[in-house]
Amino acid sequence: MSNMKTLQAKAGNVLIGGGSPIVIQTMCNTHTKDVEATLEQCRRMYEAGSGLIRITCPAPADVPYMKEIHDRLRAEGIDTPIVADIHFSAETAIAVAPFVEKVRINPGNFHKDHEVACQRFAELVKVCRQHGTAIRIGLNHGSLGERITNLYGNTPQAMAKAAMEWLELCIGEDFFNVVVSLKSSNTIVMVEAYRELAREMKERGFVFPVHVGVTEAGNGDSGRIKSCVGISSLLQEGIGDTIRVSLTEDPVNELPVAAYLADRYDGKIFSSMTALSLSGGKAVATYDAPSREKLLLDFSCDFGKRLLDREIDEVEIKGCYRDENGSSVDITSSGLGEYLVDELLQASRRRFYKPEYIACPGCGRTMYDLQGAFEQVKARTAHLKGMVIAVMGCIVNGPGEMADADWGYVGEGGGKVSIYKGKTAVLRHVPDSEAVDRLVELMEKDSI
Ligand code: SF4
User: Cβ(363) to ligand 1 under 6 A?
Assistant: First the structure.
């Protein structure tokens, strides 16, 4: 439960903010037109406790599929609110709003002309008010748009300012069924953006509920640690009413991590740390953890914020955890301690011991084997320490969302990949069987 008094949004039967428990959510990575596959994934998400389920709705032609998915879930007794994920099209948002409980939009992308974007947003607000549909205003660091970056730069402050402009419009329309998010894959940028937004909303006297997440966090231990660092830093300050842990994996895997974070900051579970000493900027922590997973999450939440905020510079971890057979494993002699410290320092951007990977979780727009490609890219680039490498699921949003990556591997669809150096596509239409080789060649040539 957020300890910052917020307004309350309502998506179907789920309350967000205003003192409600933290709501966990995830997003389908199936093609929305593939109704059976999407339904199957929604059922698994429901079983795993997702409080909201997001599904991409790229165009008006997808609206009937969204409606069918929604109606069939309800007929099966699954009442989890459905969130339609919209990227650019106000027309799509307006068309789908009557059939779902929430729409996620970045109104800045509705039109290049800000005045036109405002008009379209006002039309959407009207439809949402009529149908009791909530809105998430979701801005990402990589896709702020020229008008905002010209005014405020490409900064966390700019993200907060951009969000405030849309929230002002909601206040002017007397529409408060709104949640707001400001995501980045960079934990420092993301935490600073949300803090700034919280300050601005407080000052304005309207504190809207906040959806918190680290976008494009990657997968495995690194994705979990990065997500915990960003999300827990904010939850500790009472910022965050609904959360998504975004992983380039089966989306159902996101839910246990999100549930851990929600339970921990709703005061239902506690860290397995048994002793802590702090001296001269160094923390030494001892754990007695029931599992490796719990140890990883506890450690990330116990020290992520302290590292991010430079309260400490170093951390050492000792003690033990239980393996799957219930046997005690020593954290130091198993090598896990050193590895977790490396990962945590990287996630909190204090020391980089390997390349920094940005990978989107994939969604209904993904047109290739994103998870497989990400694994290949990681395996082939592990030696390129210091590089920021993005692996993105689609050409529509991928290039905009990979923010400050040095190199990007972006799926075009039809078995083809584009390779980016910074914001520029240096190779297009590369068959995906050759794309990892081409990327590595270019990176190595460039680093000579
Ligand atoms: S970049 Fe990834 S998550 Fe974002 S819209 Fe494209 S496929 Fe979906």
Answer: yes
Q: Which atom of ligand 1 is nearest to the CA of 411?
A: 7
CATH number of the domain to which 230 belongs: 3.20.20.20
Local confidence pLDDT in tens for the 448 residues of the chain: 555 578 999 999 999 999 999 999 999 999 999 999 999 999 999 999 999 999 999 999 999 999 999 999 999 999 999 999 998 899 999 999 999 999 999 998 899 899 999 999 999 999 999 999 999 999 988 778 788 888 888 899 999 999 999 999 999 999 999 999 998 999 999 999 999 999 999 999 999 999 999 999 999 999 999 999 999 999 999 999 999 999 999 999 999 999 999 999 999 999 999 999 999 999 999 999 999 999 999 999 999 999 999 999 999 999 999 999 999 999 999 999 999 999 999 999 999 999 999 999 999 999 889 999 999 999 999 988 889 999 999 988 898 888 789 999 999 988 899 999 998 999 999 999 999 999 999 998 887 6
CA of 333 to the centre of ligand 1 (A): 40
Confirm or reject: Cβ of 138 under 6 Å from ligand 1.
Answer: no
Instruction: Give the number of domains in the chain.
Output: 3
C-alpha to C-alpha distance for 16 and 178, rounded to whole angstroms: 9
**pTM of the entire predicted model:** 0.96
- The answer, yes or no, to whether any atom of ligand 1 lies below 6 A from the CB of 362, is yes
DSSP secondary structure of 172-192: HTT---EEEEEE-SSHHHHHH
- Asked whether residue 183 is assigned to any structural domain, the reply reads yes
Mutation to probe ligand 1, out of 254, 394, 409 (largest number of atoms < 8 A from CB): 394
Instruction: Report the CATH number that the domain containing residue 423 is assigned in CATH.
Output: 3.30.413.10
Pocket probe for ligand 1: among 106, 370, 401, 410, the residue whose CB has the most ligand atoms within 8 Å is: 401
- The strand pair at 178-183 and 388-392 is best described as unpaired
| Helix spans in 153-310 (H) | 156-172, 187-204, 220-235, 254-265, 292-308
| Distance, CA of 314 to CA of 424 (rounded, Å) | 37
How far apart, in whole angstroms, are the C-alpha atoms of residue 398 and residue 403? Answer: 9
Question: Quick one: which atom of ligand 1 is closest to the CA of 364?
Answer: 8
Q: Is any atom of ligand 1 closer than 6 Å to the C-beta of 58? A: no
The residue whose two tokens read 């506690």 is 270
* Domain stop point among 239, 265, 291: 265
